[in-house]
Amino acid sequence: MESLEIKPLTAPPHATIRVPGSKSITNRALVLGALQSWYQRFDLTGALRSEDTELMAQALGKLGFHVDVRWPDVQFNPHGSNRPVPASTADLFVGNSGTSMRFLTALCALGQGRYRLDGVARMRERPMHDLLAALNCAGIRAYSEANNGCPPVVIEAGDQWTEPGATIRGDISSQFVSALLMIGPFVPLFHRDMTWMLRLEGPLVSHPYVEMTKAMMHAWGATWREDNGLFIFAACESMASFGIAAPYHVEPDASAASYFWAAAAITGGEMRVEGITTKSIQGDVRFVEILEDMGGQVVRGQSGITVQGAPLHGIDVDMNDISDTVMTLGAVACFAEGPTTIRNVAHIRHKETDRLAALATELRRVGAGVDEFADGLTIHPRPLHGAEIETYNDHRMAMSMALIGLKVPGIIIKNPGCVAKTYPRFWEDLERLRA
User: Fold this and answer.
1) Higher pLDDT residue, 358 or 39?
2) How many CB atoms lie under 10 A from the CB of residue 288?
3) 67: phi then psi, degrees, rounded to nearest 5
């Protein structure tokens, strides 16, 4: 469809829903599972089938991994190569999947050959310089074809892990850090000292995603020493127990859940999302705390979290650690009493679109007042009206702005199909709120 009109609800929803598996967990599990398949079979269950995860799985196949995809189950069988990455050459297309681009760039550095990674036009604008610089620092030849620090990127790998470590800035993208951490247990195998160190420099954005990576690596049995931003991998320690025998199950996506928790807050209804609890390894589960701070009621259960709508008030919040839910909060803020200020999220200007500028533009389009500054926004609630919403081919813009349409007539989402990037059945699930 070229566009989709969101019809306002006739009554507050009271529903239970289970959102699909986490994209962030799925793509990390695919990389870790591929690494395990150097010598051992791996099974993944509950994996998210979406544009991003399909691109990741396809790319791993082109890299020579024996991947059998039967969504939501994925199986890797041992490939028998003498390197962690079987193929000696590959031309990979990752669309606009940031996790795929960053994780695969690091993964290819464990291969022996030449690998090229490219994506859509927007991906060619997304920064890669710091990850490439870190790989070069470690002795790998990694460069941007256009010499602008953005894709297409080329990795020429072999036995060049000549340096004992690398340094990566933490304030550009947590995905850079996660990418290097996941290959960390394997790097010492190619280094003469059999030890490799990754140093994190400066503050870290979206740190819960790095914590997610570390939690999953622990589940795989990976070990390292950590000291004040320094990660030390030793081959005898890192590889001894790497691998997971039982199938690894993917949690439901907390970022996706945020839209339904927000729907309850906006409409005064009640939404329970199954399968996500406070024990989740996903940082975005903290979004319910923000709704609670605004006046919403939250019930935390052993098998799910429920949000009950109530009169909302504006807040001032640092969202650096859960920046994927900034757009969701932007929609909620339109229905609060008083302004809401979102801070410390400058890095989301380098996502699928410049999310701060795009969100400000679309909220103004429906009548909200918005002050945009370098690292955030202040949203001033005003009477809202219908409008055609530009989505910038950004799945989060489409899903977040659709929430406004649950109360405001005339909200039309252009290019609704962009939600396929992470949540292909979103519109079907949103329609369930009318039941």
Assistant:
1) 358
2) 25
3) -110, 125
Query: How far apart (Å, rounded) are the C-alpha atoms in residues 266 and 259?
Result: 10
Residues 23/253, Cβ–Cβ less than 8 Å: yes
CA angle, 178 then 184 then 190, to 5° = 145
Instruction: Tell whether the torsion through CA atoms of 304, 28, 99 and 185 is positive or negative.
Output: positive
- Identify which of 191, 186, 192 has the alpha carbon closest to the alpha carbon of residue 240: 186
User: What is the CB neighbour count within 10 angstroms for residue 34?
Assistant: 30
Tens-digit pLDDT profile for residues 112-161: 999 999 999 999 999 999 999 999 988 899 999 999 999 999 999 987 78
Tell me which residues are annotated as active site.
324
Question: Does residue 355 contact residue 347 with C-beta atoms inside 8 Å?
Answer: no
Residue with tokens 């406070």: 278
Given this model, what pLDDT does residue 71 score?
97
Mean pLDDT, range 366-379, rounded to an integer? 98
Question: Positive or negative, the Cα torsion across 117, 231, 239, 76?
Answer: negative
Cβ-proximal residues to 166 (8 Å cutoff; 6+ apart), any chain: 134, 135, 137, 138, 180, 197, 198, 199
Output phi, psi for 250, to 5 deg.
-85, 130
Query: Domains in the chain, start-ordered, CATH in brackets?
Result: 3-20+251-434 (3.65.10.10), 23-233 (3.65.10.10)
What residue type is 196 in one-letter code? W
- Here the tokens at position 402 are 């659709």
> What is the per-residue pLDDT for 236?
61
Q: Average of pLDDT values for 77-101? A: 96
Length of the chain: 435
CA distance 189 to 170: 26
Reading the block at residue 14, the tokens are 């009271």
